[in-house]
Amino acid sequence: MSQDLPRADELGLIGCHVCGLVCRDTGAEGAHCPRCHSALHRRKQASYSRTLALLLAAFMLYIPANVLPIMRTASVGDIDDNTILSGVIELWVKGSPDLAVIVFTASIVVPMLKFLALGLLLWSSRHATPWARRQRAKLYRLVELIGYWSMLDVFVVALLTALVRFGVLSLVEPLPGVVFFGLTVILTMFASMSFDPRLIWDGRESDD
Amino acid sequence: MTDQQVPSDLPEPVVRKPRINASFVWLIPVLAALVGLSLVINAWMQAGPTITISFQSAEGLDPGKTPVKYKNVVIGRVTAVTLAKDRSHVTAKVSLEKSAEGFATADTRFWVVRPRIGLGGVSGIDTLLSGAFIGADVGESKESRDEFTGLEEPPAVTHGAPGKTFKLHTDDLGSLDIGSPVYYRRIQVGRVVTYQLDKDGKGVSLQIFVDGPNDEFVSKSTRFWNASGVDVSIGADGVKLNTQSLATVLAGGVAFGAPLGPHDETPAEQGAEFRLFGEQATAMAPPDGEPRYIRMRFDQSLRGLKVDAPVEFLGVPFGRVVSINLDFDEKTQTFPVIVGAVVYPQRLGRAHDKLVALAKARGDDAQLSQMMGRLIEHGLRAQARSGNLLTGQLYIALDFVPKAPKVPYDPMVKPLEIPTVPGSFDKLQEQLAEIVDKIQKIPFDSIGQNANATLAELNRTLKKVNDDVLPEFKTTLQGAQQTLGNANNALSADSPLQQNLGGTVQEMQRTVRSLRVLTDYLGAHPDALLRGRRADAPPERNAPPAPTSTQEGSKP
């Protein structure tokens, strides 16, 4: 029924993302909102390539983040370097399955979910398929929502490093892995930010 | 609403030059890729060779954690531990660091450092907390290798440690072990590195390492001995107990020292070979020189003679018994005992030197057999003597026996045979036997019979005496009694004989008294003999005061 509704694009209009002012689309390069001076664009600028680039970078950093150890716990001469996965396994084995599940979700499931979800969104919007648009939109909102929860691990390491400083008795040190992991999370957050969900709807055929 | 009307008073956007090109965003994945690549390259550059070390057990080895250390610097890490297919050992895969490439060479040794507590001390305590690690010791080889067999015990000597290695030969290992201490003047200066059985199985070769700078005390004439034992000696000055440290008594050890007297003091070279003696006394004894085999033939039982029993020459330890065999002599149908012994002529010291010199001067062969020939002419004989009366142990004594019967001696016979005489104890036995023989020859039977006859005769005689002599004797006794009664009567107090006798005695008393008066007088007046008796003395002589005064004066 709303099939006939025109897009702002089609009406030669452009809305400011920041203050919501609607301007006339002159089609000029580098148009800015006359009210708040933020950049105006019909869709997020180079949304597809930005998201893809950021996603790729995040994925590349995700490999060292998982391979390299993120944290060193030293207690009375026993030095233990843990990667994300080995930490999860150790938590599980040593009797805290609940914590293990939380860390696993935050550090493994969520980033992977983001890679898959954004990848799927990018691919589908590239091909402008009308397939499951509403679900895709929901998926995007989910990705936006859970994105920063992945920082949990980084915070845990940062907190422990600051708190556990008992010299020889007990010591926690961050290792390079956590930097890569933090970068991965930030990059995925940027990636999901630079993705324009309106691309989902751009295919005309079934505007449901 | 549905009209596609666009209000005309919409504001126009302000146009500004875009500051950055959107395609710069691709720099991010490129950077990420660069970072990742640099990590990979870094890891690849840092990765040293991967080696495998096999151990008997994986105790303390933790994949991904157990480090490999050289001089306490981590040079690698165990990445995996797997069981061998035949389950006889475990294989630890170790990735060495790039800087530790030199450790993958043929003569590098690896061992697991675990806490060890032994009699010799405690080591590896730090690994109690930190967990075991693999120790490494690199050699000088340049030949690369990636499969190693780990040592089960830490090596006693690490490569490049200052000091020298020496080789010791001994008959048996005793209580020595790898790591057993080596003492010099009871200070530990080294340890046993390895030991192995000689190829012919006739001895044990030990390798010891003496730390610098003490290795220079090992000179060419140094003597080594096994210091594990407790040395108890009973001498003229009492009982002496001689031991190294208590730990050595329990765990064993080697001690060395210079022999007494002048000796070669040039330091021994690396790898010099020495003999390891059983105890200090034998080690310090002058060198034995060439051993000689001699043989002795004893005709009596040699119960108590054992292999290794000493052979003494005039009380000087000369050698030891090496074999005791029974022989059969068809002619005499006896079983002589053939005793083989090894003797060391050089133990005789100067006597040996002089004998050799003498033999040479005479133009004889300086051989032991020639020398012995002359000595045997002078009565040298072997004798099995009792060394200990309690246990009956025998030793062989070579001694000059006076008036020894001459024996034929052939110096050409090999091995040299020394004539024997029966041992002192055997002689005693023989003499005892002779005495017993003599006693046995006494005709106790006939003596008994004779004695029996004599006793019967005696019996008869006694009977006769009883029957004939006794009644006579009785009457004789009665006669005697009568005579005695008469004598008694004659001697009684009131008998005339007695009275006569009393009168005679009184008369004699009187005579004696007057004689005394005469002699007294003559004593005082000897002139009376010539002049006759003088007139009586004046009367005051009888006045009593003088004797009373003297009597009272004597009283206090």
Description of the molecule:
The complex is a heterodimer of chains A (208) and B (556). Chain A is mainly α and 208 residues long. Chain A has 2 domains: 1-42, no CATH class; 46-202. Helices cover 53% and strands 11% of the residues of chain A. Chain A contains 7 helices and 6 strands. Chain A has helices at 47-67, 84-93, 97-126, 133-146, 152-163, 176-194, 198-201, and strands at 13-15, 22-24, 31-32, 71-75, 78-82, 171-174. In chain A, the strands form 2 sheets. Chain A has a 3-stranded antiparallel β-sheet with strand order 5-4-6. Chain B is α/β, with parallel strands linked by helices and 556 residues long. In chain B, the strands form 5 sheets. A 7-stranded mixed β-sheet of chain B has the order 6-9-3-4-5-2-10. Chain B has a 7-stranded mixed beta barrel with strand order 11-14-13-12-18-15-19. Chain B folds into 4 domains: 35-149, no CATH class; 163-284, no CATH class; 292-436, no CATH class; 443-480. Residues 546-556 of chain B have low confidence and may be disordered. Chain B has helices spanning 27-46, 127-130, 246-251, 280-284, 350-362, 368-377, 424-441, 444-491, 496-524, 528-531, 545-554; strands at 14-15, 47-55, 67-70, 73-83, 90-97, 109-113, 116-118, 121-123, 133-137, 147-149, 163-170, 181-184, 187-197, 204-211, 223-226, 231-235, 238-242, 254-257, 273-277, 292-298, 310-313, 316-326, 337-343, 380-388, 393-400, 416-418. The interface between A and B is large, with 46 and 29 residues. Chain A: This is Paraquat-inducible protein A. Chain A: Pfam families: PqiA (PF04403). Chain A: The chain crosses the membrane at residues 52-71, 99-124, 145-168, 174-195. Chain A: It comes from Dyella marensis. Chain A: InterPro entries: PqiA-like, PqiA-PqiB_transport.
